[in-house]
Amino acid sequence: MTWLELSFKEWQRRPLRTCVATAGVAIAVAALFSLLAFQSGYREGMRGELDRLGAHVLVVPKGCPYDAASMALHGASWPCYLKQRFLDEVRGVPGVATAAPVFMTALYDALGNQTVYVGVETNILALKRGWRITGRPPERDDEVLVGSEAARRHDWQLGEKVPLPGLRERSGTVTGVLAPTHGADDTFIHLPLSSAQRLFKHKDELTHILVRLADPDDLDHAVALLRGCDAGLAMNVVPLAHVFHTIRSLVNSTRLMLGCIALVALLVAGAGVSNTLLMAVAERGRDIGVLRAIGASRGDIFRLVWLETIQVCLSGAIAGVGIAFITSRSLETWVRSTLPFAPTETLIHWQWWNVWACLICAIALGCAAGFLPAWRAARMPPMVAIRTGKALA
Amino acid sequence: MNAPPNGHDSVLTATALTKIYRRGREQVRALDDVSFDVRKGDFIAVVGPSGAGKSTLLNIVGCMDAPTSGKLRLLGHHVENATERERTLLRREQIGFVFQHFGLLPTLTVAENVALPAFFARRPTEDRVKELLEKVGLSRRGEHRPHELSGGEMQRAAIARALVNSPQLLLADEPTGNLDTATGGTIIDLFRQLNTEGLTIIAVTHNPALAGAARRQIALHDGRTASI
Fold this sequence. Notes:
The structure holds two protein chains of two kinds. Chain A is of the alpha+beta class. Helix content of chain A is 54%, strand content 16%. Chain A folds into two domains: 3-49 and 254-385, no CATH class; 52-245, no CATH class. Chain A contains eleven helices and twelve strands. By secondary structure, chain B is an alpha/beta fold. Chain B has a single domain, classed as P-loop containing nucleotide triphosphate hydrolases (Rossmann fold). Chain B has helices spanning 54-61, 84-94, 110-120, 126-135, 151-163, 181-196, 208-213; strands spanning 10-23, 26-39, 43-47, 69-74, 77-78, 95-98, 169-173, 200-204, 216-221, 224-227. In chain B, helix 6 (181-196) links the parallel strand 7 and strand 8. Chain B is globular.
């Protein structure tokens, strides 16, 4: 017999009450774990989005920069357009290494499935350094480069002539297939810029311009120059790092609030466990007296009750982490629907340190919650063992 | 009352033990100037009506409570002013307890219950537990839970537990109080056997059979020794 076995057997004595106390801890830990996993997932997702975009600055038509960033990243039909002549002005700004013009639109079939067409020039490859293409980028009007997910969904092969979804009697030849990027590019169909402009009847118009700077540290200066050029009044210059920083700040505020709620839940759960153990100690007064009478010291009794509390909290933590795993998909769907901007990657992305942090929190909670019941039990005089009454065994 | 002389085989010498409790504004004199001597191998029955102070005396002799005044020399130790730690050590190492309500933990097996005092003494137990379960006739009941035993078996398990640290003194509080006459008889026989083997026993009892089995009786009345 060990101390752990002894305390484990003791807390099984009132299984229902112990389960309720454990469930309280489990719910609080599940909230904490989900929050930590969300923090990791969101941060990594945002970083991944930035890396995949490859641009430092997004030049878009006048309007909300956050909407524009979301449309450029995830694909959509744009409500307004830039004049293509702005491209030359952007390219002329000192510090701009590459300015890649983009025309983007989205079409929907009868079932509501979205197909995003993106017209680009070959200089897009200077930004999308992570792209791995099987085949080659499109060069002629009827050529397309398809994302890995789009190719899989339509079962398109390299070199195949395929009907373009949402466009009647239009077809294109697949000249290249993108290796999975784990981003929105996987679902896009890329075609030459001029071809896209002609196809969607927006000649000499762009939806946005992706700008890569020669020196990313010179962002503020470059943005000021872009805003100050002749076309500056007709376009919105959006430094992406600032957009993501703002979005992250907004999400951080929400996360802080949720963190406080998780903390309060943990404290309430701890109070519940403490109360449960206090009741258990009061009910087991005579048993504790017997243990004292047969040689248990005050320290032994303290240790026993303390271990019992820690075990309850630790069990709750393990159950909580399990609950968080099971509910992570539903939670992700819900979080995605409420966020102003969500990366395409998994939002709830747990790491081992999240698990350890939750377990350590639960142990700390158990130590704190168990102190009072353990102290009261240890102070109980052995004389109560002699008192007569209903026999326990 | 004068205490008898303290010989080298004395297990316990109580001199003018007095215990006063406060109940609100009232003072209750639970023990009043009680003196007696217990020698090695004694089997003493403490008898008397309810409220006579028997349990208070057992609490004090068992180092679970301190007297308000008087002296108590137990197995060579002056325990009236002993610290909590010293009392715990005495209870653990030198004294075995048997309770009317058996005091077995329901979540542990019989063998685990028997092993508990040795566990608290950080002492290996397996062989000793087997030996004691055999001695009290429960060798096949070691893995059972207390609720699966009869009253007599539970009390025998409790006696085995009291003996696991090889104490010099066995204290029993109404050990036959929850048992029928026949079962109580087997417990009395077990006490008699243990006493024959040299164990010193003090039992608080209302049971005339147990009192009759003892070598000596201490009768208490209103906290005073009525007869020894």
